[in-house]
């Protein structure tokens, strides 16, 4: 078609009202100008779009706002071990690092059977296979908090479960309540999405119970989620039934849903009872996040879940539909592990769980006993999970600026790496992972003692440190 001595390609819409045209150049190839023509033949030319003249590729605001506090601190440390002493890393929350805590043979066999069946090589529904979701529902259902398959969303590890839960509950400009000290991922995810993080205090003198008054004071009309971690990373604490009920009372009073991070569910030392939040809740809706990683000692398998507890239909259908839509972004968890899931949950012997917990308790007791007698250190005995927090009386260690400096020098001189608790928003503590073999735990504690004895400065009679 030719008009005004120009050639045009015309694409008519089915209603015939407007058409989209593009100019042709001298060779009959499409040019860059876009025009619109009405049916009466008049021509309306839109603003010509200019081409970019140079490369200008920039990272997104979300990527720039994504920061893991642990990486930010550790990457800035000068971690050069003493070449005369083999490195003992007590910093990584991965129970498989030293090879002394393998998963059970039945767990491995379930994976082998899933592979050999050739049934799980394709796509699964984004929320997970129905059979696998039902297996999780059956495993965690109880009369106080019943579950069906429709209440379970399978995810790529517990970390993704936490991400989906935050995403479905929060909008940019909202705020969430996060424990201090607490798992750094909560802040990493929230800040990257434009969500404010408010930190509520845990109390070391009360075995890391929540400061309930402080937590309640932080809640306002933009608070969209309260995160409760039980058992705790990094503290290894386990809340009593009474304390959990008090948490629920605050959430109920101020109408705040709870994201319950229960990845360490049932990793509780003998003599200490642990209840899920949902089993105690009468009206607070809860998204409980868990997975295979820690209890089954397979963090690399990346299989987690969200359990939707909403007996009063406060979440309604929209939260569930929102979770489904969010799962469609990566099309779900690994299908092979999903195929093995029912067998893993139903066939893992109780002795495997008991042996793991017995080892963790024994190692925790060794670490606690050894460090209790070290001047200037205040370990807090855990009740579960895989961690122990140790306070540093920094006034008695004037050679060090803070916990980061302290732990950095511990690596340099003793080749023992403990994670400074500044990574968990809690300075002047460090975290120890208690999954190392017993002989290494004893050796690490001996080196920490030697290090502390060298730098410790006792108080003088007049209240000032000696050697100042």
Describe how the helices and strands are arranged.
Layout: E1 2-3, E2 6-12, E3 18-24, E4 30-38, E5 43-45, H1 61-64, H2 69-74, E6 88-89, H3 105-117, H4 130-140, E7 152-155, H5 157-169, E8 175-180, H6 185-192, E9 196-203, E10 209-210, H7 212-218, E11 223-229, H8 241-254, E12 258-261, H9 277-280, E13 286-291, E14 304-309, H10 316-327, H11 335-347, H12 350-372, E15 377-380, E16 387-392, H13 403-414, E17 416-417, E18 419-420, E19 429-433, H14 438-455
Parallel strand pairs: 6-17, 8-9, 8-11, 11-12, 12-13
Antiparallel strand pairs: 1-2, 2-3, 3-4, 4-5, 7-14, 9-10, 13-14, 15-16, 16-19, 18-19
Helix pairs in contact: 3-11, 4-11, 5-6, 5-10, 12-14
Catalytic activity: L-tyrosine + 2-oxoglutarate = 3-(4-hydroxyphenyl)pyruvate + L-glutamate
GO biological process, one term: L-tyrosine catabolic process
EC number: 2.6.1.5
């Amino acid at each position: 078609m030719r008009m005004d001595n120009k050639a045009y390609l015309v694409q008519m819409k089915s209603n015939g009202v407007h058409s989209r045209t593009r100019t042709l150049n001298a060779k009959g190839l499409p040019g860059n100008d876009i025009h619109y023509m009405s049916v009466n033949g008049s021509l309306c030319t839109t603003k010509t779009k200019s081409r970019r003249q140079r490369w200008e590729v920039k990272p997104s605001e979300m990527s720039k706002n994504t920061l893991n506090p642990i990486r930010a601190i550790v990457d800035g440390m000068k971690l050069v071990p003493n070449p005369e002493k083999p490195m003992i890393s007590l910093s990584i929350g991965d129970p498989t690092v030293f090879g002394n805590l393998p998963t059970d043979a039945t767990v491995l066999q379930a994976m082998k059977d899933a592979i050999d069946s050739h049934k799980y090589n394709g796509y699964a529904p984004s929320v997970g296979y129905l059979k696998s979701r039902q297996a999780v529902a059956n495993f965690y259902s109880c009369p106080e908090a019943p579950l069906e398959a429709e209440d379970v969303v399978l995810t790529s590890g517990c970390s993704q479960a936490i991400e989906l839960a935050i995403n479905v509950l929060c909008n940019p400009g909202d705020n969430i309540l996060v424990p201090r000290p607490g798992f750094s991922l909560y802040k990493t995810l929230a800040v990257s999405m434009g969500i404010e993080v408010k930190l509520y205090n845990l109390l070391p003198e009360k075995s890391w119970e929540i400061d309930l008054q402080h937590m309640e004071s932080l809640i306002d009309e933009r608070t969209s989620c309260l995160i409760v971690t039980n058992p705790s990373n990094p503290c290894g604490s386990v809340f009593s039934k009474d304390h959990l009920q008090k948490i629920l009372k605050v959430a109920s009073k101020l109408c705040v849903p709870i994201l319950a991070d229960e990845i360490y569910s049932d990793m509780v030392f003998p003599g200490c009872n642990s209840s899920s939040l949902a089993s105690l809740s009468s009206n607070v809706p809860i998204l409980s996040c868990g997975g295979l990683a820690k209890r089954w000692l397979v963090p690399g398998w990346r299989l987690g879940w969200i359990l939707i507890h909403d007996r009063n239909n406060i979440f309604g259908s929209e939260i569930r539909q929102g979770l489904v839509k969010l799962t469609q972004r990566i099309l779900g968890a690994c299908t092979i592990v999903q195929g093995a899931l029912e067998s893993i949950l139903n066939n893992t012997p109780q002795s495997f769980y008991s042996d793991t917990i017995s080892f963790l308790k024994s190692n925790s007791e060794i670490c606690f006993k050894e460090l209790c007698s070290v001047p200037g250190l205040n370990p807090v005995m855990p009740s579960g999970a895989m961690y122990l927090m140790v306070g540093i009386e920094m006034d008695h260690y004037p050679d060090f600026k803070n916990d980061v400096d302290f732990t950095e020098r511990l690596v340099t001189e003793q080749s023992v790496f403990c994670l400074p608790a500044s990574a968990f928003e809690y300075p002047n503590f460090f975290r120890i992972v208690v999954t190392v073999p017993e002989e290494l735990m004893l050796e690490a504690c001996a080196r920490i003692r030697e290090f502390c004895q060298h730098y410790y400065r006792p108080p003088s009679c007049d209240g000032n440190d000696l050697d100042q």
